[in-house]
């Protein structure tokens, strides 16, 4: 019994348990805050990405910012750090991951909207991102300098390319997101 109480106390201290420590949607949760470089980013919104007509839940995603906002353009333009944290709810092969990157690229860059100078870094990002198992996490950490990518908390990419960072974040909350529902949720729309 003592061991269980000590474990629960430790989990609460680490932010792994306890009331008010996680936001949830459809039974899926992510932490309310994301620690980054000595500060704590707040969860702006939480959504689930579904695919196919069968609404397969692929991942839960959270957008973390320094100050909450429902304005995508303001978030994209803000100089403060931002994080997209994804936890996979469905396995995805390396080919599946690449397919999603390519579809996002076609939607957001298909008419010359993206700088050709971003292409090499984009290809490095695709090459570095592995397939995912249920429970794996992928985090995009956006700063004024560019973007770091973490897979299960291990850094898999570091891109000193601010334009690519804005393009990747814009792929979630910009004009051509993976889904309008996911965008709305990341921007703080309440679950219906």
Q: How would you explain this protein's 3D organization?
A:
By secondary structure, this protein is an alpha+beta fold. It has one domain (22-186): Chalcone isomerase (3-Layer(bba) Sandwich). It is built from 6 helices and 9 strands; from the N terminus they run H-E-E-E-E-E-H-E-H-H-E-E-E-H-H. The protein has helices at residues 2-13, 72-77, 94-109, 119-128, 162-173, 180-186, and strands spanning 22-25, 28-31, 33-36, 39-51, 56-65, 82-88, 137-143, 146-151, 154-159. The strands form 2 sheets. The protein has a 7-stranded antiparallel β-sheet with strand order 3-4-5-6-7-8-9. Strands 1-2 form a two-stranded antiparallel sheet. The longest helix has 16 residues, at 94-109. The protein starts with a helix and ends in a 6-residue tail after the last helix. 30% of the residues are buried. The model is unreliable at 1-20 (pLDDT under 50).
A few lines on this structure:
With 192 residues, this protein is an alpha+beta fold. The chain is 33% helix and 32% strand.
Structural class: alpha+beta
The span between the termini is 40 Å
Task: Report the CATH C-level class.
Answer: Alpha Beta
Total number of distinct structural domains: 1
DSSP summary, beta strand count: 9
Q: Give the helices and strands as they follow along the chain.
A: HEEEEEHEHHEEEHH
Looking at this protein, list some descriptive labels:
192 residues, alpha+beta, Chalcone isomerase, two-stranded antiparallel ribbon, 9 strands, globular
């Amino acid at each position: 019994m003592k061991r269980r109480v000590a474990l629960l106390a430790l989990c609460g201290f680490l932010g792994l348990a306890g009331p008010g420590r996680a936001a949830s949607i459809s039974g899926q949760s992510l932490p309310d805050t994301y620690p980054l470089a000595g500060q704590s980013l707040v969860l702006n919104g939480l959504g689930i990405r579904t695919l196919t007509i069968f609404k397969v839940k692929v991942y839960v995603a959270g957008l973390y910012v320094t100050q909450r906002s429902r304005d995508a353009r303001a978030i994209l333009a803000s100089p403060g750090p931002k994080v997209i944290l994804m936890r996979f709810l469905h396995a995805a092969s390396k080919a599946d991951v690449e397919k999603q990157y390519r579809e996002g690229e076609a939607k957001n860059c298909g008419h010359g909207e993206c700088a050709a100078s971003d292409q090499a870094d984009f290809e490095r990002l695709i090459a570095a991102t592995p397939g995912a198992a249920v429970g794996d996490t992928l985090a995009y950490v956006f700063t004024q300098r560019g973007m770091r990518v973490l897979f299960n908390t291990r850094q898999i990419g570091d891109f000193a390319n601010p334009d690519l960072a804005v393009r990747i974040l814009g792929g979630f909350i910009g004009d051509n997101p993976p889904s309008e529902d996911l965008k709305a949720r990341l921007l703080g729309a309440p679950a219906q």
